[in-house]
Amino acid sequence: MTPRTINRKYILGGVLFALGVWCVNLWLALPASWSENERGTFGDTFGMVNSIFSGLAFIGVVWSVSTQREELEVARKEMKATQKILEKQEDNIREQKEATKLQSFETTFFQLFKLLTDITTSMRYTYGQRDEQGKEVVERFRKIIEDRYKKETGRQHVGVDGQLVFMPLEGDPDKEALRRAYKGFYDRYGDDVGHYYRSLYTVINFIDRADINEDSKWFYAKLVRAQLTSGESALLLANYLVGHTTPEFDALLEKYGLIKNANDIDLLTMDFRQLANPEVFGRKYVEECKSKQKLTD
Question: By mean pLDDT, which of 27-31, 154-158, 169-173 is the weakest?
Fold first, then answer.
């Protein structure tokens, strides 16, 4: 039984009680043996009944206000429930839009990524009986630049514990020697390696300009970066240092640390790492540089 039903029962009971009192009062005032003065005096007693009716009227007003409050409270709850439903629907629509947007991005991304892979795989290097393809060609390009750089500087391997290694460079690296070595390489193989650079830039630039959140951008950029070998990283480092890239490509190399996989066993990386912006080697390397700086300060 609802509160409204209970209130109605009490109101109806009060009205019937007041009406009964009034009727009893009227019946008692009608005996024929009473004189007019007696009847007039007794009629004044109906003031009590009028007071009861006034009280009941006040109760009715209170009940009406209470009922309206209940109705407003119910309406308020319904509005809140409706608002929650609408908010949930908006969230669902937003999630669907984000999912559709991400799906569209991934479709294009993997097509570009496959194109980069195909371009890398199709690269060939033939010299005498030597026939290399794909990532081997990139590594061969790194070796060609390294050999040219060694001729420019006289840097040679030394034997350490039965292994041939490069000793750390004494003094400042010769950037002009690297520039001459790279120019000699690029004049001959620029068409092949240039296509590779442009394809890599296209993929990374597409990620950076996509309408997705920053975490997702980093996820896909790291996916591309993970496919780059140390040879590719050394090649990118040389290209970056001699200025054969564009400012836009340089910014992307630094933002996403695309040369992270560069290895110091490569002569070019060993000698020229210090000349590059630490950000091109990734966030971890930047933190290591900051820690070393604090120790020296």
Answer: 27-31
Tell me which residue range forms the domain holding 52. Answer: 3-96
In angstroms, the CA 137 to CA 124 distance is 6
Total-model pTM = 0.68
Rounded Cα gap, residues 195 and 119, in angstroms: 8
- Quick check: is 101 in a domain? no
Same structural domain, 78 and 155: no
Distance CA 118, CA 114 (A): 6
For 107-155, write each residue's pLDDT tens digit: 999 999 999 999 999 998 888 778 899 899 999 999 999 999 999 888 8
Backbone angles phi, psi at 127, to 5 degrees: -145, 105
Residue identified by tokens 């590779």 is: 196
Helix axes of 46-122 and 214-225: crossing angle, nearest 10 degrees = 20
Give me the phi and psi of 133, to 5 degrees please. -150, 150
